[in-house]
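Hi V.,

Quick status before I head out on leave. The structure for the redesign project is tokenized and pasted below; the design run finished overnight.
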């Protein structure tokens, strides 16, 4: 969508400090420092890949309920992610690049470049040999995973927001802000162009070939494989920004910016139930292979798990680490101020890496100088050394004023007492 904000993290603590006293919602995977823009599920249902406005992607294990790998390469928001058939991963985002990853490796195996604007969506062909990307440069590109060759599909007049291969692998479907749904024959020829009643933000294809698209008017529109409209459902009153079809094809989950996910009975063309996400708006949604479990990604950086058959959240709070990293600091006011920050930052280099850089050895370190973390160019150009005074000033003035150009979500701590408690705690907890 044209108005999607572009955010990224910096060295500063990016957790939601304004909400630090609220209780965690059920069934959360916590690790991103910004809205979760994309979610993909591995074919065996054991792993999740998420992409965020914080510029990172995270590979999660649903068995251990922990982040197994943080993928850092992109210089801007990660808007789209996917698993390949061989277990590798694909990420793409606002830096207009597509990266191919092998689990466990710290850098991409391949990087595809060619788009001239942010990439909004990815799709993997049924045979696993190609990846398609939809971009705000008004094009769709198809990349060969074998030799990196690209095919450019032109015709959309505005941002292309969604892309999906048909179930037989013979065509590619794209949707855009120009209200067009295009069905591209991959063997060549003229695409079938269908103009619908609203700017289109997402598209998915059911196992039987039916096409589903979600629009800015909150409607789901259903089309036969050749493009003939076959029905519609008013899923909500706010724009639909993400779609997922259950593997058995019976249900469609439509996520809206109002924080409600509508689960649609595809055969009945009706809303079966609604999930209300307290971390609204919802930016991403995905079904697990069991057809009954749904994951949603929210603006608060959390991934929540739901029973799609009942609408109830599943399980107790799932954290990115199996223990409370602040358990040793019970009663410490500074630790309580910092508590929300553990979603993105560790205090020790020995802890598993998260979406943000570790704060170990923070004081005395120059901004954007920690090896192994990809900082924005704006931060690299600044002459700031982290001290209790500079950290306090960061949260007194806010990132936009103190570190302009970081595109970090604005966070401030108004109380001087709370800022002092935080900086004192960091002195004790991050000293090497």
């Amino acid at each position: 969508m044209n108005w999607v904000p572009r955010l990224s993290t910096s060295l500063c603590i990016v957790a939601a400090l304004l909400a630090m006293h609220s209780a965690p919602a059920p069934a959360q995977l916590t690790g991103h420092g910004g809205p979760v823009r994309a979610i993909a599920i591995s074919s065996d249902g054991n792993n999740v890949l998420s992409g965020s406005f914080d510029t990172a992607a995270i590979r999660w294990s649903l068995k251990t309920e922990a982040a197994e790998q943080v993928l850092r390469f992109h210089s801007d928001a990660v808007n789209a992610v996917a698993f390949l058939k061989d277990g590798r991963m694909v990420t793409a985002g606002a830096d207009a690049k597509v990266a191919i990853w092998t689990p466990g490796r710290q850098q991409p195996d391949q990087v595809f470049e060619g788009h001239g604007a942010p990439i909004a969506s990815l799709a993997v062909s049924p045979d696993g040999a190609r990846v398609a990307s939809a971009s705000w440069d008004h094009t769709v590109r198809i990349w060969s995973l074998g030799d990196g060759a690209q095919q450019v599909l032109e015709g959309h007049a505005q941002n292309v927001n969604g892309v999906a291969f048909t179930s037989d692998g013979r065509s590619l479907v794209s949707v855009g802000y120009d209200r067009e749904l295009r069905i591209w024959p991959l063997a060549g020829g003229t695409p079938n162009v269908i103009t619908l009643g609203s700017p289109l933000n997402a598209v998915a294809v059911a196992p039987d070939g039916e096409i589903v698209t979600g629009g800015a008017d909150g409607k789901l529109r259903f089309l036969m494989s050749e493009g003939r409209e076959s029905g519609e459902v008013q899923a909500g009153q706010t724009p639909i920004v993400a779609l997922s079809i259950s593997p058995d094809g019976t249900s469609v989950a439509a996520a809206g910016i109002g924080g409600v996910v509508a689960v649609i009975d595809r055969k009945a063309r009706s809303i079966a139930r609604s999930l209300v996400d307290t971390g609204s708006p919802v930016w991403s949604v995905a079904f697990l292979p069991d057809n009954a479990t749904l994951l949603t990604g929210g603006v608060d950086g959390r991934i929540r798990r739901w029973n799609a058959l009942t609408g109830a959240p599943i399980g107790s709070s799932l954290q990115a680490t199996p223990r409370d990293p602040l358990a040793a600091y019970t009663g410490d006011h500074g630790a309580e101020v910092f508590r929300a920050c553990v979603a993105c930052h560790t205090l020790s280099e020995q802890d598993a890496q998260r979406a943000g850089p570790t704060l170990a050895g923070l004081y005395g370190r120059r901004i954007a100088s920690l090896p192994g973390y990809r900082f924005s160019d704006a931060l690299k150009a600044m002459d700031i050394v982290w001290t209790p005074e500079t950290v306090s000033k960061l949260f007194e003035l806010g990132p936009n004023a103190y570190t302009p150009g970081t595109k970090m979500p604005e966070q401030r701590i108004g109380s001087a007492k709370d800022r002092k408690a935080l900086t004192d705690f960091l002195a004790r907890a991050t000293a090497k």
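Above is the designed sequence. Residues 327-429 form a domain with the Cytochrome Bc1 Complex; Chain D, domain 2 fold (CATH 1.10.760.10).

G. will cover questions while I'm gone.

Best,
W.
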